[in-house]
């Protein structure tokens, strides 16, 4: 019998293939909370496909999914909980037809068991089991660099407004990069292209990335230094544990 | 006999192959004007190779090259002038081993005849002849989008400090992306992933990109609305001609 992880890899790959096949298709685009918070018919279709797959195999499992109007609450009492972002970086998906990801994470009693991030257009699946992290078949490892010789992935608003001290922190580095997708940013972090990622995120934005990154020595915290709460949008960052105390000289509530 | 364009494509491709073959090699890194303005032995080696190629075939041609300590002046009296950036995005080259470019442009009496930008790690050569622009073998064309449904490529300092009105302009769009390389940004622009690129650039940063982009309907201007002067670092942008007047409501000296 295939494990949840093996099945999840297939589902995410299938979703990626579906999106690639339809990359030139006309989109139905709807604004959500504001003019730059967009959703397409493909976000909804991918979510429906993956949710149907999960419930077909595991009808008792719970699912926290971005495009659900009424969302279940993340709770460490739940034996089997999935967290799904069907298309992360929807604006990139619409405008760039590139730099977007399908993300899926799985928790048992609040503990992250595995995560998957598919960089759809580059065919890169970042994933982990309970011990190790991979990009496709290649095992990932932390590349240690001094903060001063590193780049940061940032959210544009937090950076320019020095929210949480992010602009101050950036001055201790070689600079910032803005990609417009948490999933693609986590991919760059896992490959060592950025040393930390700082943004204002919902649980489905950081669930998979935080689990995968943890396997190679990264920590995900709120800017107050707490564990993320998994119940709202909040300012969080993922960075290597060896840099946390140095980062926290600048990153403050 | 091979034309300058045909030869230049070979030289740039050869440089890209050399960099890829040596991507894991140890680097000798030197600071230039400040801690985040870096140069490596590979910038110098690629420049030496391409300069030697040009002078071997065309000993009378002039070359404006980034890593020359004494640079010749761009001048519309020069019959054959090359502008070379051996590695654009040197910080990305060092830290990311990705998102850097080799750029070469060619002018006759001040008129851009062709440009080449090689995205080394993605094997994408953006280039043009006197009429058309291409990515590898695929002809490029302008993808018209309204400003409000577009993304901007920006320089981090100009964006956060609203230099030239860039932050104001960004609020009329779906947001900004920061890549850390003019060459890679021009590549995204040529593929329609960003609608405009705004940065503080030297001539070798915008020479190739401005020539290629012009072939498909883009214009390169200083933030004052003049043609770039090709003699110093200045704030320039490249955007489609149909958007210039709308952009200039926000972008001002």
From TrEMBL, chains A, B:
<feature type="binding site">
    <location>
        <position position="85"/>
    </location>
    <ligand>
        <name>Mg(2+)</name>
    </ligand>
</feature>
<keyword id="KW-0479">Metal-binding</keyword>
<dbReference type="GO" id="GO:0006020">
    <property type="term" value="P:inositol metabolic process"/>
</dbReference>
<dbReference type="GO" id="GO:0046872">
    <property type="term" value="F:metal ion binding"/>
</dbReference>
<keyword id="KW-0378">Hydrolase</keyword>
<feature type="binding site">
    <location>
        <position position="205"/>
    </location>
    <ligand>
        <name>Mg(2+)</name>
    </ligand>
</feature>
<feature type="binding site">
    <location>
        <position position="87"/>
    </location>
    <ligand>
        <name>Mg(2+)</name>
    </ligand>
</feature>
<dbReference type="GO" id="GO:0008934">
    <property type="term" value="F:inositol monophosphate 1-phosphatase activity"/>
</dbReference>
<dbReference type="GO" id="GO:0007165">
    <property type="term" value="P:signal transduction"/>
</dbReference>
<keyword id="KW-0460">Magnesium</keyword>
<protein>
    <submittedName>
        <fullName>Inositol monophosphatase</fullName>
    </submittedName>
</protein>
<dbReference type="InterPro" id="IPR000760">
    <property type="entry name" value="Inositol_monophosphatase-like"/>
</dbReference>
<dbReference type="Pfam" id="PF00459">
    <property type="entry name" value="Inositol_P"/>
</dbReference>
<feature type="binding site">
    <location>
        <position position="88"/>
    </location>
    <ligand>
        <name>Mg(2+)</name>
    </ligand>
</feature>
<feature type="binding site">
    <location>
        <position position="66"/>
    </location>
    <ligand>
        <name>Mg(2+)</name>
    </ligand>
</feature>
């Amino acid at each position: 019998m295939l494990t949840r992880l093996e099945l999840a890899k297939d589902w995410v790959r299938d979703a990626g293939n579906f999106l690639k096949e339809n990359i030139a298709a006309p989109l139905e685009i709807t604004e959500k909370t504001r003019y730059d918070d967009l959703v397409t018919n493909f976000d909804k279709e991918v979510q429906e496909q993956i949710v149907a797959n999960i419930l077909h195999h595991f009808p008792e499992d719970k699912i926290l999914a971005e495009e659900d109007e009424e969302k279940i609450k993340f709770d460490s009492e739940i034996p089997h909980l999935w967290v799904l972002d069907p298309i992360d970086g929807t604006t990139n998906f619409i405008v760039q037809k590139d730099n977007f990801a399908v993300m899926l994470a799985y928790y048992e009693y609040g503990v992250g068991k595995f995560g998957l991030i598919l960089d759809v257009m580059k065919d890169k699946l970042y994933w982990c089991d309970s011990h190790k992290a991979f990009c496709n078949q290649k095992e990932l490892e932390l590349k240690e660099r001094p903060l001063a010789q590193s780049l940061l992935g940032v959210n544009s608003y937090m950076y320019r407004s020095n929210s949480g001290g992010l602009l101050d922190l950036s001055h201790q580095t070689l600079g910032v990069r803005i990609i417009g997708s948490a999933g693609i940013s986590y991919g760059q972090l896992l490959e060592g292209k950025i040393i930390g990622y700082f943004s204002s995120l919902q649980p489905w934005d950081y669930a998979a990335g935080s689990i995968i990154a943890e396997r190679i020595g990264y920590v995900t915290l709120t800017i107050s230094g707490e564990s993320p709460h998994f119940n709202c949008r909040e300012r969080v960052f993922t960075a290597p544990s060896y840099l946390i105390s140095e980062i926290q000289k600048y990153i403050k509530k």
